[in-house]
Amino acid sequence: MTGLDRQLKARQKSGLGWLIAGGLGSACVLVAFVLWLFVVKGHSITVLPKEAADAGSFQVKAGLATMLGNSLYRIGTNVELLISSPEYSSQTVKIGTDSPSAVTVTLTPKPGRVRANIASLHDSNVSWFLDGAPLARSNPLDTFIPPGEYTLSADHPHYQPFSTALVVKRASQQSLDVSLKPVQGGIDVASVPSGARLYLNGQEVGTTPIQLSLEGGKYEVAVQLKGFETSQETLSINQLTPMQTRNYQLLPEQAKLSIRLEPEGGDLLINGVSGQPGTNSIDANRNHLVRYSKTGYTSFERQVNLAHKAEQALDIVLKKSVGEVSINANVPALIEVNGVAQGESPLQLTLQTLPHTLRISRPGYRAQSIKVTPNAQKMQNLDIKLLTEFDARRQEGQALFADVLGIRTRLVKPDAFTMGSPQNEAGRLRHEHPVNVDFDYRLWVGVTEVTEAQFAAYDANRPISNLPVTNVDWIDAAKYCNWLSEKEALTPVYAIQANRVVEVNYNADGYRLPTEAEWEWLAKKSRRATETQFVWGSSERIPEKAGNFADQSVKGQQLFFFDTINDGFAGRSPVGSFKPDRLGLYDLAGNVSEWVQDFYTTAPPDLDKVHLNYTGPARGQQFVVKGSNFNSGRLKALRSAMRIVGEGPADNIGFRVVRKARGTE
């Protein structure tokens, strides 16, 4: 290779280097341009007001960004930019992908600091107002106020109102010395008796009556007169009451009488005016009559005279006052006084002269309770006539033994209707025959089913509760009705021999089970314009608190239940726990089913006639059970026409009682 060849080759290598360097430079420029075009985002920042912008500064607090003049260039998403300016409150703004390219930020001027002092006042009871709005309650005032022109006011009860114009510049400080003028007022003081010395703040200023001019402020006032107690109070001369007028009624010099009473609760009088146990202030050096009396005790009376500032204790103990009471009755009877047995009539008692409650009683007779207050001066003679329970009830026109047991009844007058169910009623059973019935009597109906407690009065082996009695056979219910009739002195309905009913007297006025017709009339027709399918009406929607049915609590225990109901009871519920029907009867639907009077049969009676006072088949072996119970989980079982055959005692079958109304009761 010649020298020329070597020079040419070297030049070729040098040109290639420059070419590579140029390419790399172009690539860097291109990359920077792409980054600038697609990655770097710019925002122009405008700061208001102009004064804030002229002296403002920017500082990137978070994010990747830089400021060039009033422009922000960011790489990435969010940037926090702090904008500051003297005399303005700094503000941090967030700028991100959702921010516009032009961002305007308005800075708030810093408030000015205002100090105001009322040197003549040494309390903080000064109210400051700015343009009439409350600002502070203090002295001195030290507060920050936004720039602007205002009216600053100061108010103190004892001084005249003060106002001044106030100009506050941003970030400024200023101090004010405020001088208040006192309120000009006075006092007009009189006393009874007059001629008393008047003291203001401990200095004597004259005698009553007197008028004085005073500046606003508080004054300790004392009025003194020999032989009388000093009257003292604090008066305020202020904007609302610059003039104070007083007429002091001076009390004679006082003494203290401390009174203890035994027993308490009576009437204490001092000179005929009501007094109180404990310390009483009385006029000194004069006689006072102290009286104390209480019903049932002898009275106390004494005169008291005490020197000025003397103190005396007075214990007043009253003695009981008694009287004689003689009690006679038409039959020997137990006499109780305030619930405590005293003996048998005739009886003479010595009792305190207080109101007493006397109870005169004898088994089988209506007890009497009377109020009596013995007289200490004269014996009282009481002649009591006791009536047998029978006579007492007849006089009152109602049976009350059931009331004693808690068996409430409601009087009804059944009228014509059709029992059973129509052919198109959903859930109808074939033995629900549509029988036309009518009635010619009035009926007392048990408001609730008979409870365990009410049945336990007849059968002591039964539990006592407010749950409906269950596990009773039809004959048990009939026997209970007869027992109740005897207690009421009514004619029993059932003739029972060898634990069987051999005759039913429907004309008797005693208690019995309702007939199926009576039961359905109560459930379907009573106080209804037309017969209804259910106790609550004919809607298939069960109202809230309509009755105790199979609800969510029996899920998993029986196949059918109402999964939308939770009535709070898995079994029986206390009678009256749910809403009554339109007549006020409880549990015709739900809780327990009920025995009724009728024999059970599937054979229909004559369906073409109206049956008056229908009582069902004349004979049979089993009895009808009516009404749904806590096991009823299907809508068809809640229908009032539903009837089942009673096969003996069950935990979901009870009963309620009825009886025919007597005469005009």
UniProtKB/TrEMBL annotation:
Q: Name one Pfam family in it.
A: FGE-sulfatase
Q: Where is the Sulfatase-modifying factor enzyme-like domain?
A: 446-659
Matching entries from SUPFAM superfamilies are given as:
C-type lectin-like
Keyword vocabulary terms for this entry? Membrane, Transmembrane, Transmembrane helix
Cell cycle listed as a keyword: no
User: Which GO terms label this protein's molecular function in UniProt?
Assistant: formylglycine-generating oxidase activity
Give the transmembrane ranges.
16-39
Q: Which residues form the PEGA domain?
A: 186-239, 323-386
PANTHER family tied to this protein = FORMYLGLYCINE-GENERATING ENZYME, SULFATASE MODIFYING FACTOR 1, 2
> What protein name is recorded for this chain?
PEGA domain-containing protein
State the organism named in the record.
Alteromonas sediminis
